[in-house]
Amino acid sequence: MVTEAGNGDVAHRHADVQILIDETGDGPAMLTVCGDIDIVSAPILAACLHQATHHPGPGVVVDLFDVPFLGCPALAVLTAAANELCRDHRALTVAADEAHRRLLHRTRVDATIGCYSTVTDAFRAARTPTAHASSPTASPPFPYLIRPPATTCSRTDLSVRDHPPETHLHP
Description:
The protein is α/β, with parallel strands linked by helices. It has helices at 42-53, 72-87, 98-106, 119-127, 131-134, 155-162, and strands spanning 2-6, 9-14, 17-22, 29-34, 59-66, 91-95, 114-116. The protein has a seven-stranded mixed β-sheet with strand order 1-2-3-4-5-6-7, with helices on both faces. Strand 5, helix 2 (72-87) and strand 6 (91-95) form a beta-alpha-beta unit. The chain starts with a strand and ends in a 9-residue tail after the last helix.
């Protein structure tokens, strides 16, 4: 459900999650998230972040202070948005409480996303992206998330690999 919140803001509500997007001005787009971000609500966050990444500002700020639960799907969504912004030399920053910042640090998501204890600090950092978030030569922090090139594979290839032809030894 999408509703106009005023002043160019858009609010997205679904089940127990609400996301307010503020794309006014020439500063970073601002997402304020309220509610749990789990496997059900992560696609909503992804859609909102996708919209915010197309805002012409210098970056995107996500306020997670009103998020009681931040699941693995949310981490994947945040990382994907950060990677998309990084390609445009822009930054994704997050303002979160200590528990969420610790989670982002333990999962190494903070290598791609700037994590801050206040919205003001996150907003300031999104206006002036740091070298790690905007460097075109920086190596990706999550090489295991980068998928290898697709290979062609047929059902026959799989059956031969899983069940090699039997060889019979004759006495």
